[in-house]
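Need residues for this backbone.
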């Protein structure tokens, strides 16, 4: 009788893990002569642990991060020593507290995207932060649709809820002036409020190809660099190295 009543109460309180595990933990408590307080603490710790695990899984789904691009799957030995030290600092998560940006530059195949995605995943696993990954062209198209539908401010408000936005391959595909205007609007809106993490094959000296206008280019770079960590991945293409190794 008590089991049925307790199960009903725990269901109404939305404590599914307690409902599933309390009997097992109660048996352990009797066997080990645990106090009521210790039994309750163990039970609540189990619930808290499961809730944290569920939250991390939810954040990972929402992030749209490619999960195969994780930190264990990234060969940090390939990184220049200075960059590897910067990565170690970034993994503490303090850059998000300061709303700092992370800008990764390098040739195609150097691991820029993988590195930023790996850092993003660690921010979720270690610190429970909200991260969004998006290719630049998809981000821009969604912003344009919102602008067309007079919903750009709502879209920007939703994006501002993230602790960091990873914009992949900025400048990889040359965009129109209208497309770059909405991208600049996003960068301006996130300035000192949300961390922006960008990968790009183009150095700043060539960013006028992206923003089409010298003044807009200068303003975009100024906002990104003001509070930022720059990762220069001047290393050979990882994909090319693997391809060469696999040749017969």
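Answer:
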């Amino acid at each position: 009788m008590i089991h049925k009543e307790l199960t009903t109460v725990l269901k109404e309180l939305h404590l599914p893990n307690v409902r599933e595990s309390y009997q097992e933990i109660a048996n352990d408590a009797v066997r080990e002569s645990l106090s009521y307080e210790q039994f309750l603490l163990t039970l609540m710790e189990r619930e808290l642990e499961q809730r944290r695990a569920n939250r991390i899984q939810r954040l990972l789904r929402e992030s749209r991060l490619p999960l195969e691009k994780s930190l264990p799957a990234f060969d940090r030995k390939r990184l220049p020593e200075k960059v590897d030290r910067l990565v170690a600092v970034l993994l503490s998560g303090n850059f998000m507290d300061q709303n700092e940006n992370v800008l990764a530059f390098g040739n195609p195949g150097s691991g820029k995207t993988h590195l930023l995605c790996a850092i993003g995943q660690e921010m979720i696993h270690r610190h429970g932060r909200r991260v969004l990954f998006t290719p630049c062209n998809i981000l821009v198209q969604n912003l344009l649709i919102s602008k067309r539908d007079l919903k750009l401010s709502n879209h920007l408000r939703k994006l501002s809820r993230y602790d960091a936005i990873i914009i992949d391959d900025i400048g990889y595909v040359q965009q129109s002036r209208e497309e770059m205007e909405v991208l600049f609007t996003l960068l301006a809106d996130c300035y000192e409020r949300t961390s922006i993490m960008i990968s790009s094959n183009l150095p700043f000296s060539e960013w006028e190809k992206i923003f089409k206008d010298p003044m807009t280019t200068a303003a975009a770079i100024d906002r990104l660099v003001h509070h930022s960590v720059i990762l220069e991945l001047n290393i050979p293409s990882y994909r090319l190295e693997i391809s060469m190794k696999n040749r017969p």
